[in-house]
Amino acid sequence: MHATLLGVLGLALLGALHAQDSVPVQTDFQQDKLMGRWYSIGLASNSNWFKEKKHLMKMCTTVISVTADGNLEVTSTYPKGDQCEKRNSLYTKTEQPGRFSYSSPRWGSKHDIRVVETNYEEYALVATQISKSTGSSTMVLLYSRTKELSPERLERFTQFSREQGLTDEEILILPRTDKCMADAA
Questions:
Q1: Which of 34, 41, 60, 142 is catalytic?
Q2: 180 is catalytic
Q3: pLDDT tens string for the chain (185 positions)?
Q4: Between the CA of residue 77 and those of 45, 56, 63, what are the distances in Å?
Q5: Of the candidates 96, 121, 102, 113, the residue with the CA atom closest to the CA atom of residue 35
Q6: How far lies 116's CA from each of 26, 30, 57, 99, 179, in Å?
Q7: CB atoms within 10 A of CB 60
């Protein structure tokens, strides 16, 4: 019985690891072309915070720049109540171009971030696996250089999110807003 339970747990862990390894990374990723201003158009997640805050979320801006050592400085500006909040994150490059790691001291979480696909001038699809002591979650972000994207890009985001095991209730096209757009870094 004990051996069977360990075997089942081992297979579950292996399955989870395999699922993350199956998330692709942009072929011939060119980090310099990812720099600049992006708008968050879509967000999908199976995390508890997303379920609790989903109804409050709106489009936000994200500015990506490269640090001297080749990591990414990611600054997001988003509406929160009557104010604009800024969050800075440092995405550390890994050996695989287009794949980054981030640790959140505030939430005690580790993030495996992958630029899944992008054409650099229009959109970027980013998948993140988040691990915490309380469990793991998946997040998919759709970025755009403008506040609107074609229906085909929105459908690709929805399709990819579903492929990651997310349900339609966990997938959100963020409502447009002009609030905090001018305040972005």
A1: 60
A2: no
A3: 444 333 433 433 434 444 446 899 999 999 999 999 999 999 999 999 899 989 889 999 999 999 999 999 999 998 888 889 999 999 999 999 999 999 988 888 999 999 999 999 999 999 999 999 889 999 999 999 999 999 999 999 999 999 999 999 999 999 998 888 875 54
A4: 19, 15, 9
A5: 121
A6: 5, 12, 23, 9, 28
A7: 25
d(CA 57, CA 40): 11
Phi and psi of 67, rounded to 5°? -85, 170
Cβ burial, residue 82 (10 Å; 0-12/13-18/19+): exposed
Vertex 99, ends 97 and 104: CA angle to 5°?
145
* 107 and 15 Cβ atoms separated by less than 8 Å: no
Helix or strand (DSSP H, E) at 160? helix 151-163
